[in-house]
């Protein structure tokens, strides 16, 4: 057994169809809170107010925006102070959870989170805000929600494209957890189960969006993915996706789906668990082929060209990716390696 350090971010997790409706009031009470501030988006605001029902909430902040702009956090913190909120009730996807975390970082208010996508942020200590084009991220125990209510019924309204993209983003967290800096035997265990659960459930949900067992599987997989990512961290794959999203405006989750098989294929020779644990969890004898075959079954983009990257962007993309530090990647990463991965992903070449 290799020597390892495993830091857990223990939260209380309540999982089950209908639990957001039946258990929310009791969970908020467990936090010792009497007046939570609801944080959500305009689209999920009706759901959030229905769930809060008879709770004596302090107010509703539905100004969540992607990438958590600091001005939205300023507004929410001001509303929390003005209304005497004593907790944050977050109902929504990763952007909503991210906003709740940024509020908690400034106010120390406890968070009860009701995730409605497969982002997994609700079980990680990672927070991020943006100011103009500048993104600031960090880790803090203060931002980890104290209680998370996973209710698969709430994800039934996720459109197909978002379902696929969000679930493949969770898959990327699981795969990358095997070689991220904090990888350890426990995160391996959690991530392998996440891969298996997502790979089993996703095709069923894409065929039938209201497949209750499939929706529950995906949400459970998202929880496992967030847990593995929160403890293990991320690596080469996320760094590449970060550049492609930031510099070329490529859609976050679709970028993950396309890039993942190429990075997995690149790292596989140095990470035996990708072959011995991840590939079988995908029902394949090869991790990259298992991922591309899953992508093909659910009909998502398979090349960066399909989601907006041009051949002419390649040199800039390679240069920007190389500005990152890859010292902790299991294989050395230089110009030829980055160019190889990006070229293959751009063209959707067979892995
Ligand atoms: P999102 O939260 O931005 O939501 C996208 C859209 O989907 C919004 O309009 C939202 O209202 C809508 N939506 C949410 N749930 C819905 C539902 N059930 N039915 C219908 N519509 C719904 O998207 P996301 O993919 O959940 O989150 C992405 C963000 O999360 C990224 O910014 C990413 O960086 C962040 N993230 C952070 C962590 C972390 O640990 N900090 C982890 C994963 C992702």
Automatic annotation (TrEMBL):
Boundaries of each Alcohol dehydrogenase iron-type/glycerol dehydrogenase GldA domain copy? 11-152
Task: Supply one GO molecular-function term.
Answer: alcohol dehydrogenase (NAD+) activity
Describe the location of the Fe-containing alcohol dehydrogenase-like C-terminal domain by residue ranges: 163-345
Q: Does the keyword Oxidoreductase apply?
A: yes
The source's superkingdom equals Bacteria
- One of this protein's Pfam families, by short name? ADH_Fe_C
* Tagged with keyword NAD: yes
Key words of the record: NAD, Oxidoreductase
The similarity comment for this entry is: Belongs to the iron-containing alcohol dehydrogenase family.
Stated name of the protein: Maleylacetate reductase
The beginning of the lineage is: Bacteria, Bacillati, Actinomycetota, Actinomycetes, Streptosporangiales
């Amino acid at each position: 057994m290799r020597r390892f350090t495993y830091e857990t971010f223990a939260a209380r997790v309540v999982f089950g169809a209908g639990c957001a409706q039946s258990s929310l009031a009791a969970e908020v009470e467990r936090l010792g809170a009497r007046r939570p501030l609801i944080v959500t988006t305009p689209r999920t605001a009706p759901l959030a107010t229905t769930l809060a029902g008879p709770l004596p909430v302090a107010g509703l902040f539905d100004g969540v925006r992607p990438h958590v702009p600091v001005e939205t956090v300023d507004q929410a913190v001001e509303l929390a102070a003005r209304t005497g909120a004593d907790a944050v009730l977050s109902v929504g996807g990763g952007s909503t959870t991210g906003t709740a975390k940024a509020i908690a970082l400034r106010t120390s208010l406890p968070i009860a989170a009701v995730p409605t996508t497969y982002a997994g942020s609700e079980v990680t200590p990672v927070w991020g805000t943006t100011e103009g084009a500048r993104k600031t991220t960090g880790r803090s125990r203060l931002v980890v929600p104290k209680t998370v209510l996973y209710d698969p019924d709430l994800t039934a309204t996720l459109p197909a494209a978002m379902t696929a993209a969000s679930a493949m983003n969770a898959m990327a967290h699981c795969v990358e957890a095997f070689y991220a800096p904090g990888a350890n035997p426990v995160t391996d265990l959690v991530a392998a189960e996440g891969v298996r659960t997502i790979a089993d459930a996703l095709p069923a949900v894409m065929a039938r969006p209201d497949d209750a067992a499939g929706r529950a599987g995906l949400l459970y997989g998202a929880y496992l993915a967030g847990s593995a990512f929160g403890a293990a961290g991320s690596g080469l794959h996320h760094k590449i996706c970060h550049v492609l999203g930031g510099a070329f405006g490529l859609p976050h989750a679709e970028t993950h789906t396309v890039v993942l098989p190429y990075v997995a294929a690149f790292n596989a020779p140095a990470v035996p668990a990708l072959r011995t644990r991840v590939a079988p969890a995908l029902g394949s004898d090869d991790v990259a082929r298992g991922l591309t075959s899953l992508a093909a079954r659910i009909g998502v983009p398979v090349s960066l060209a399909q989601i907006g990257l041009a051949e002419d962007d390649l040199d800039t993309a390679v240069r920007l990716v190389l500005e990152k530090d890859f010292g902790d990647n299991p294989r050395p990463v230089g110009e030829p390696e980055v160019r190889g991965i990006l070229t293959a992903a751009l063209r959707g070449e067979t892995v």
